[in-house]
């Protein structure tokens, strides 16, 4: 008796992995196969996918022995709905070079570790693809998420199309489409996505387009402003990304403020304007800091709600609950400067505000919850008068002044301090630690601006700050840097 044919699907929560499993059961039964299906839920907060495992065996007098979970060396077809999840299938040794056909979507849904990293913690998509290709007998890779979006469908339909198009399973393509029709789930949209993915899989996928989503996210919006077009190449690339971001964050006048700062940098810089490019990027990030207004705006953007609630045939009854736990500092920062300063100093005010720091839940899918968040979002018209904005702009100007002062004596050192702005990220305690680390780097740079090799030391210190949240590695790096500059070893 031959062993059963196996299919393993790794899908994130909300991607319809269970729907794909049900479709595959239907397809197998229509084809006269015995099928066994199991699933093991993944962990929440994007640390792992749910594993759906199916085994197929043609109906006969034989009584096949079927397993409940995949085993090493028996994976005929492994499907991952996201690139890192495909890598996890390789890590678990469920993908084998002499056995397994691996299908993966090339889009990314960033993990908690990637999002919480102090610097750029994103996995390299191209490197992941190389690893996957070297560990599979055959690989089919294309952007299933993009196909689903293009057809106003969900990724589950694209996954089914990829399975059918791979040709690994002995089932007729018509039976897959029939399973979608029999389910009655958004039939027209799901069939369109299924057919698109079917053709992509038959073509072998598009591994060279692995970073298509990241590339699209990284492409600047069209900015036809004469000022932008006349900027040096590297600066123009940064600014063309920054302008749409600043408009979305605040308004056109905010762009004018940014423009004035970039022009000041250009006046003190020279070709190839590396310092201006780095500082312009830091300025854009600093001027779009995360505050309560920005959070409320992002949570109530129509495209987010449409993605969560669906539309047309895909619309579902869903309750979206936002969990928030603001600190007193965030609440006071959302007040006018004078009132916010008083609220931070006053014990009575802190005691009152403390009642709101125990955690709030707001249903953004309800009318009143949505309106409450929109009211907070509309406070951006007042943002320039608020304490948080006042403090952020003061810190930003201090950083710019430091960069300008260093540029007069040591261009490379100024460049490293400009790059160090990426330490200021996130919100809450993470933002405070990053800001404190940047101030320490600025102070260190100003103290040692006459020392040869100070830029190399600052580079090491910045890397240390990004490597450890506690600050212990940073402390050690500063002490070591002091010694290197004192002995001329840098």
Could you please describe the fold and organization of this structure?
This protein is of the alpha/beta class. It folds into 4 domains: 5-216, Pyruvate-ferredoxin oxidoreductase, PFOR, domain III (Pyruvate-ferredoxin Oxidoreductase, domain 3, 3-Layer(aba) Sandwich); 221-288, no CATH class; 292-383, no CATH class; 386-490, no CATH class. Helix content is 56%, strand content 9%. The strands form 2 sheets. Strands 2-3-1-4-5-6 form a 6-stranded mixed β-sheet. It has a two-stranded antiparallel ribbon with strand order 7-8. α23 packs antiparallel against α24 (472-487). It is globular, with a radius of gyration of 27 Å. It starts with a strand and ends with a helix. The model is unreliable at 207-222 (pLDDT under 50).
In short:
The chain is 56% helix and 9% strand. It has 490 residues and is of the alpha/beta class.
**What is the CATH architecture annotation of the largest domain?**
3-Layer(aba) Sandwich
Number of strands: 8
State the CATH superfamily name of the largest domain: Pyruvate-ferredoxin oxidoreductase, PFOR, domain III
**CATH class category of the largest domain:** Alpha Beta
Topology-level CATH name of the largest domain: Pyruvate-ferredoxin Oxidoreductase, domain 3
Helix content estimate: 55-70%
The stretches of 5 or more residues where confidence is low (pLDDT under 50) are 207-222
Computed CA radius of gyration, to the nearest angstrom = 27 Å
Strand order of the largest sheet: 2-3-1-4-5-6
Shape: globular
DSSP strand content:
5-15%
By helix and strand content, what is the structural category? alpha/beta
Largest sheet: 6 strands, mixed
Number of helices: 24
What is the number of domains?
A: 4
- Assembly classification: single chain
Average of the residue pLDDT scores: 85
N-to-C span: 69 Å
């Amino acid at each position: 008796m031959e062993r059963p044919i196996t299919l393993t699907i790794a899908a994130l929560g909300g991607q319809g992995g269970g729907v794909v499993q049900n479709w595959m059961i239907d397809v197998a039964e229509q084809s006269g196969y015995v099928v066994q299906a199991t699933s093991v839920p993944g962990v929440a907060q994007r640390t792992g996918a749910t594993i759906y495992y199916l085994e197929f065996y043609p109906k006969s007098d034989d009584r096949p022995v079927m397993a409940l979970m995949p085993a090493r060396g028996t994976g005929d077809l492994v499907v991952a709905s996201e690139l890192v999840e495909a890598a996890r299938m390789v890590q678990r040794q469920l993908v084998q070079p002499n056995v397994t056909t691996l299908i993966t979507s090339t889009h990314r849904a960033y993990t908690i570790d990637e999002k919480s990293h102090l610097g750029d913690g994103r996995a390299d998509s191209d490197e992941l693809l190389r690893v996957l290709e070297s560990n599979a007998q055959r690989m089919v890779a294309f952007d299933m998420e993009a196909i689903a979006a293009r057809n106003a469908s969900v990724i589950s339909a694209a996954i089914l199309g990829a399975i059918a198009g791979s040709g690994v399973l002995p089932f007729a393509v018509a039976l897959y489409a029939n399973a979608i029709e029999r389910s009655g789930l958004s039939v027209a949209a799901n069939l369109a996505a299924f057919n698109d993915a079917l053709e992509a899989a038959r073509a072998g996928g598009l591994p060279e387009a692995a970073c298509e989503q990241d590339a699209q996210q990284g492409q600047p919006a069209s900015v036809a402003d004469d000022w932008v077009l006349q900027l040096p190449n590297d600066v123009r690339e940064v600014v063309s990304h920054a302008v749409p971001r600043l408009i979305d964050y605040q308004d056109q006048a905010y762009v004018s403020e940014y423009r004035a700062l970039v022009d000041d940098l250009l006046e003190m810089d020279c070709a190839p304007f590396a310092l201006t490019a780095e500082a312009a990027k830091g300025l854009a990030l600093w001027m779009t800091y995360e505050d309560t207004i920005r959070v409320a705006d992002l949570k109530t953007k129509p495209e987010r709600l449409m993605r969560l609630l669906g539309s047309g045939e895909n619309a579902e009854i869903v309750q979206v609950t936002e969990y928030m736990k603001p600190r007193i500092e965030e609440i006071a920062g959302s007040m006018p400067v004078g009132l916010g300063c008083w609220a931070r100093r006053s014990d009575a005010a802190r005691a009152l505000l403390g009642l709101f720091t125990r955690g709030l839940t707001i249903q953004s899918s309800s009318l009143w919850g949505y309106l409450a968040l929109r009211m907070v979002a509309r406070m951006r018209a007042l943002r320039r008068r608020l304490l948080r904005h006042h403090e952020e702009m003061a810190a930003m100007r201090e950083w710019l002044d430091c960069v300008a002062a260093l540029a007069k004596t040591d261009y490379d050192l100024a460049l490293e301090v400009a790059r160090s702005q990426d330490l200021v990220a996130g919100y809450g305690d993470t933002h405070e630690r990053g800001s404190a680390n940047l101030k320490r780097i600025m102070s260190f740079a100003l103290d040692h601006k006459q020392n040869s090799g100070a830029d190399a030391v600052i580079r090491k210190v910045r890397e240390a700050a990004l490597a450890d949240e506690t600050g212990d590695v940073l402390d050690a790096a500063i002490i070591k840097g002091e010694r290197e500059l004192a002995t001329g070893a840098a």
